[in-house]
Write a structure and sequence with these properties.
Pfam families: LCM. The structure is a single chain. The chain has about 290 residues and is an alpha/beta fold. It has a single domain, classed as 3-Layer(aba) Sandwich (Rossmann fold). α3 links the parallel β1 and β2. α1 crosses α2. It starts with 6 loop residues before the first helix and ends in a 5-residue tail after the last helix. Bound molecules: S-adenosylmethionine.
Length: about 290
Amino acid sequence: AAARSSPAAVQATNDDAAASKLSCVTKGYMKDDYVHHFVRRTTKRAPIINRGYYARWSVLRKLMLQFLNAGSGSDDHKRKQILSLGAGFDTTFFQLQDEGLAPYLYVELDFQEVTSKKAAIINHYNDMKEKLGPDASISIEKGEVTSTNYKLFSADIRDIPKLDAVIHMAEMDPSLPTFIIAECVLIYLDPASTDAIVSWASEKFSSAIFFLYEQIHPDDAFGEQMIRNLERAVAWDMLKIYNDFIDGGERRRIELLELFDEFEEWHMMQEHYCVAYGINDPEGIFDDFGFKE
Ligand code: SAM
């Protein structure tokens, strides 16, 4: 059903994601100094929603930091790149910049309606704009931001020639280790488009990890279809992620933040979200990064 939603409805899911992230930040689940710029009215989400968003944020962040920090030197993150498909109002680049962990290039793609709004907000708020450095240029009309380490472009990610063109415009280096993010995005596409995007990514980048987070059951037909294309794929449902992958100390910390008694619903809900990643790694770089099955 989601795949047949109107473009406006799909884009609205992004406003919802930003509002939910802000709800988590306000409650102390996680830190994000920028997401409030993207939300007009602060809304309080139920504890089960906050916990779900926290788990989603936490697993992506843990894998991304593992990717960025891997290597022998202190500035290994500078020889890597990140590509976010359907990035919405995600603010990860700005946080990585604050933490001194920004990669060589962080590229985000979304529909122009979304990237124009994002470009306008980045342009409006100095705390964001200054993270781009002196060479930045912003076009609200085109929905584009280009700076040394961060680039935002509009693209319908189903359009493979456009993906090629945008990667070229963004000056991504296909030979650098690349972390590709599809977070709550592929579910809106038809299966043929998802196949095409994953194939494109594995042909384009010589060493890449393709990370996805979706509301799917990893073992049902749709889940299998999505995961099938990922080489050397690893897939977990979010219950397993929450219980076994997220740091135990962090889990204890967030469990003290709010009264929580929806255990049965929590289990049911988390089993229907999944994280998967596939690795394309002929040179064994990701083995060295610790990404083993
Ligand atoms: N990845 C972000 C996150 O997790 O916060 C945003 C998720 S939001 C639920 C889905 C995003 O995917 C929206 O911003 C929507 O515009 C974008 N999207 C959906 N289909 C797309 C397509 N064909 N091309 C580009 N962006 C798309």
